[in-house]
């Protein structure tokens, strides 16, 4: 399974049993808002509340707004009285949960997921495999960093549209990202370099932002 863990430390410290399972795990700080487009590419989201239940609650409430991906919160016994339906989580795990218990709960979540969940995005020669986090351009694999993959995925999933740098920061990096909009320009430049002769797939719309697979007459470099 593809798992996203919201934590401010190594997930193995809050849930040691998880480290013994063969699932692919990606981490993000508790304070970072996870865009719906990103959350949808994971089978489940783990929220680490073993150190700070209040911050975990805030993360859960943020996810409850429009994110359909199942959530599992990790809480110690002393914090269980704080857990309410308002948190919007599907499962609860204690930090001492065994690998077998973690696996069973993950399987139960997977059983309840819609089978029609999209697995690929294809646009103008770009093929994104969401399940395996891979991207191809006219059949050739692209060697992308995680954020480059996220940015290309978002743009390819929304062709012919233009997004401001602030919109891209919100959708790809999350609204709590503390860096400036220049990071968008840097990632676009790197993506274009990796697209090679097809760098024009990502266009610059003067005074607005960036678009994907737009006509040359609408763009400006």
UniProtKB/TrEMBL annotation:
<feature type="domain" description="OmpR/PhoB-type">
    <location>
        <begin position="118"/>
        <end position="214"/>
    </location>
</feature>
<dbReference type="Pfam" id="PF21695">
    <property type="entry name" value="GlnR_1st"/>
</dbReference>
<dbReference type="InterPro" id="IPR016032">
    <property type="entry name" value="Sig_transdc_resp-reg_C-effctor"/>
</dbReference>
<dbReference type="GO" id="GO:0000156">
    <property type="term" value="F:phosphorelay response regulator activity"/>
</dbReference>
<dbReference type="InterPro" id="IPR039420">
    <property type="entry name" value="WalR-like"/>
</dbReference>
<dbReference type="InterPro" id="IPR036388">
    <property type="entry name" value="WH-like_DNA-bd_sf"/>
</dbReference>
<keyword id="KW-0805">Transcription regulation</keyword>
<dbReference type="GO" id="GO:0005829">
    <property type="term" value="C:cytosol"/>
</dbReference>
<keyword id="KW-0902">Two-component regulatory system</keyword>
<feature type="DNA-binding region" description="OmpR/PhoB-type">
    <location>
        <begin position="118"/>
        <end position="214"/>
    </location>
</feature>
<keyword id="KW-0010">Activator</keyword>
<keyword id="KW-0597">Phosphoprotein</keyword>
<dbReference type="GO" id="GO:0000976">
    <property type="term" value="F:transcription cis-regulatory region binding"/>
</dbReference>
<keyword id="KW-0238">DNA-binding</keyword>
<dbReference type="InterPro" id="IPR001867">
    <property type="entry name" value="OmpR/PhoB-type_DNA-bd"/>
</dbReference>
<dbReference type="GO" id="GO:0006355">
    <property type="term" value="P:regulation of DNA-templated transcription"/>
</dbReference>
<keyword id="KW-0804">Transcription</keyword>
<dbReference type="Pfam" id="PF00486">
    <property type="entry name" value="Trans_reg_C"/>
</dbReference>
<dbReference type="InterPro" id="IPR049170">
    <property type="entry name" value="GlnR_N"/>
</dbReference>
<protein>
    <submittedName>
        <fullName>Winged helix-turn-helix transcriptional regulator</fullName>
    </submittedName>
</protein>
<dbReference type="GO" id="GO:0032993">
    <property type="term" value="C:protein-DNA complex"/>
</dbReference>
